[in-house]
Design a protein that fits this description.
The protein is α/β, with parallel strands linked by helices. The protein contains eleven helices and 21 strands. Strands 2-1-21-18-17-16-4-19-20-3 form a ten-stranded mixed sheet, covered by helices on one side. Helix 2 packs across helix 4, helix 7 (248-256) packs parallel to helix 9 (279-287) and helix 10 packs parallel to helix 11 (367-376). The longest helix has 18 residues, at 213-230. The model has no long low-confidence stretch (mean pLDDT 97).
Length: 445
């Protein structure tokens, strides 16, 4: 029989990631039905890992702290033993709203991109990434995303408030991604993949650009895909959509139904805003089983919520919901925000798992940090989701088998009532008490 380890975090509990003692197997009796049955022989998608975004805002906040607190944050996220064990990351191709202002890498009107340089990233972002990779002791898998082309490439003449890419600049814009990848890699930071456009259906007051599904398809097919291949970057992953679940099926269908576009596309990225229609990911998977699904952004909107419990629950609910519908990796939004939830150059303040009080040189850990850890510390890259049967209507759960054959099951209880359950694995049963407003990870190894 496998050894059982139970880790719990509960609202008003004594400490997070608390290991529960006195948990043991019992032989399954014929008349003793288990409420959760694990089926490890039935395996699904392979897991890529967890990570967060190295925005300029996050990197700036990190830079303002003492060396001790900078180290603490890096350890908390990227250490494989004591931290979350992050192995993924996301960067912005020049500015997003979580930057200190709008900026690009080229001079006005430079269609040939002769002036291209990423000197701005050398100040805050690159040192942050390099410190993370040193702690992780590996190269991070980094996705790079643009929020807007330079203003002069757009129909509205500015980076903010939507607008579209002017058709005559499509080739230059495709080349811009190539320049970015080469520049980052010259700095020792490999880029694993790119998304075509962050949130291509949202006209935002910050950096944004609109693509219809057909425009995204044609840009990938006729410009971005060929440009990447022409410049020796055909191995880089291209991700479409990079937006919410509500219309992900329609977007993926339009792009991936075109073989000439689909051949360049690795998969579809999703965010959690607006919709928790997790089943839409399965619809995309079922229609295009050879393509992949990656969570590319999610955060708690509306500024910092220190001490809030529902924020962690939202993370867990979304991670479980997407995992059970073929998601392959999870990238959180900003790694570190300040006490206001920024900086953000248009005041779009948000929350983050780690909040830094840069004036007092203090670091605060939100419930979301600990909830993410219930997954990332125990479901390792290379793990495969396994099937399960459950009779629990008010407990969300997901199960994975790691490459070392250990099995991790995560159970989320968002209700105000404690629950008693039992988990069956290979003919044996363990009984489990799940506290109210809690998250539990059970590891069998």
């Amino acid at each position: 029989m496998k050894k059982i380890t139970v880790i719990q975090t509960k609202k008003d509990g004594e400490r997070p990631w608390n290991e529960v003692n006195e948990v043991a197997w019992k032989h399954k009796e014929d008349n003793n039905d288990s409420s959760v049955k694990l089926i490890p022989e039935k395996q699904h998608q392979e897991w890529l890992g967890f990570g967060g975004a190295f925005t300029e805002a996050a990197a700036f906040n990190w830079s303002q702290l003492s060396e001790a607190n900078k180290k603490a944050i890096i350890n908390a996220y990227f250490n494989k033993e004591t931290g979350l064990g992050y192995n993924l990351g996301r960067t912005a191709i020049h500015s997003s709203d979580f930057a200190l202002g709008n900026y690009t890498y080229v001079e006005e009107g430079d269609v040939n991109l002769d002036s291209f340089n990423i000197e701005r990233e050398q100040k805050y972002v690159l040192p942050f990434i390099k410190a993370a990779e040193l702690e992780a002791a590996e190269t991070l898998t980094i996705l790079a995303s643009p929020w807007s082309p330079p203003a002069w490439m757009k129909t509205n003449g500015e980076m903010n408030h939507g607008g579209k890419l002017i058709e005559k600049y499509r080739e230059a814009w495709a080349k811009y991604y190539v320049k970015y990848i080469h520049a980052m890699e010259a700095e020792g930071v490999p880029i694993w993949g790119i998304s075509v456009q962050n949130e291509p259906e949202a006209i935002q007051v910050w950096d944004s650009c609109i693509y219809t599904a057909e425009e995204e398809r044609d840009f990938v097919k006729n410009f971005l895909g060929p440009m990447m291949e022409k410049n020796g970057l055909g191995d880089k992953k291209i991700i479409i959509w990079d937006h919410n679940r509500d219309v992900i099926v329609k977007r993926a269908t339009t792009v991936l139904s075109d073989p000439e576009a689909a051949k360049y596309v690795w998969g579809t990225g999703n965010h959690w805003y607006v919709s928790e229609e997790f089943e839409n990911l399965s619809k995309v998977h079922e229609a295009f089983p050879d393509k992949h699904l990656l969570f590319t952004e999610g955060c708690i909107e509306g500024g910092v919520k220190l001490g809030a419990w529902h924020t962690g629950e939202r993370y867990a609910r979304n991670i479980i919901g997407d995992m059970n519908n073929w998601l392959e990796g999870f990238i959180d939004w900003n790694l570190v925000l300040d006490m206001q939830g920024g900086p953000n150059h248009v005041g779009n303040y948000c929350d983050a798992p780690i909040i830094a009080d840069t004036e007092k040189d203090e670091v605060h850990f939100n419930s979301s940090y600990y909830y993410i850890g219930h997954f990332s510390k125990f479901i390792k890259p290379g793990a495969k989701r396994i099937a399960h049967e459950t009779e629990l209507s008010d407990i969300s759960l997901v199960a994975f088998r790691n490459e070392d054959e250990s099995i991790a099951v995560v159970l989320l209880n968002e209700t105000e009532a404690a629950k008693e359950t039992s988990i069956e694995l290979e003919g044996n049963v363990m009984e489990l008490a799940i506290p109210a407003r809690s998250i539990t990870t059970v590891v069998f190894n």
